[in-house]
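quick one, 411 residues, struct below
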Amino acid sequence: MRTLIVNIKELLQIRENTIKKVSGVDMKVLPTIKNAYLLIENDNISDFGKMEDLNRITADTIIDAIGKIVLPTWCDSHTHIVYAGNREGEFVDRINGLSYEEIAAKGGGILNSSKKLQQTSEEELYLQSSKRVEEIMVLGTGAVEIKSGYGLTVEAELKMLRVIKKLDENYPIEIKATFLGAHAFPVEFKNNKDQYIDLIVDEMLPKIAEENLAEFIDVFCEDGYFSTQQTDRILTAGEQYGLIPKIHVNQFTILGGVQIGVKHNALSVDHLEVLDRNDIIALKNSHTMPVALPSCSYFLGIPYTPARQLIDAGLPLALATDYNPGSTPSGNMNFVISTACIKMKMTPEEVINATTINSAYAMNLSKTHGSITKGKRANLIITKPIPSYGFLPYAFGSNLIDTVLIDGNKV
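---
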């Protein structure tokens, strides 16, 4: 099966050689070809170049992209989209003046979602979550990471991870699973937190490894949740089962969690709404990808990750949605890129790099996703006719996607 896309107004994120990520000033560089073609063979990108260099090629399908821009699909490296029900009641509570922490203290937040999930069957949980996967595919996402963490019991965490595995088996986009049993402390362990950590380490992790249900392990390292010492213990245990560390960190307070992540060679440290000089220094001496979640800041009304501080220090940055029922009920990466430009002062080139090549890195997908490179998966966004790629973040309320291809096939 061969598909040829011709007359592309501009082909974005072309990389002749596979690179893992871009950092610092290089994030402002977005390689493109104007008036381009792209050939897809057997689900992969086979060739691309200028229309004037296109030799006679036979193809099963020809797509005329005149006036349109083509770029890699978004990679969303941080979501919680396997959940039950919703939390719109808490949304109203925040409008009426309650903080995220106050809502959590009265049994809302993560514990609210946990209660609903425990009462929902695996079949129903899959049906609810599959609709969200279909939604984000139409919005241009071609790879997504999904975390557990609303189970908070052995069986419920395993249920979540089995649903994630089933989604991966049934949908063409790449779906990565992260074990986040350390998302919050269940009520019954409120006065004996070490006992819950024992449950994670001694019971959850062995069963997850036995069923091969996750690639990553994550911890919510935050005041009122998991301390740096507890985070260190959980990540160490996860590594013993071959799980790659990630970490929720610096959302509200600076506890030294970034340094814990770097110590464990975490693939990513996510949130980073608050940062200090020590965090920057730690990240500069690491291979860890900082990940910002601007939709979360927008929805909760909290500070945005200081993107300029990170990038100007020579660091890379990825962007993700944080799609979840409590703080970001949206998986729209198009809104993420607009918000990052408007609120975080990132350039259009920086946000496209942050949501393609860098976010692929944050999911261990650098070899197959995130750029227009021969041999990579043919996961592509074809826009509607637009004046330039800067129009993507500019027209934040418009649907500018004409076609999404996953493995060369239309969604």
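The chain has two domains: 2-72+371-410, 75-361.
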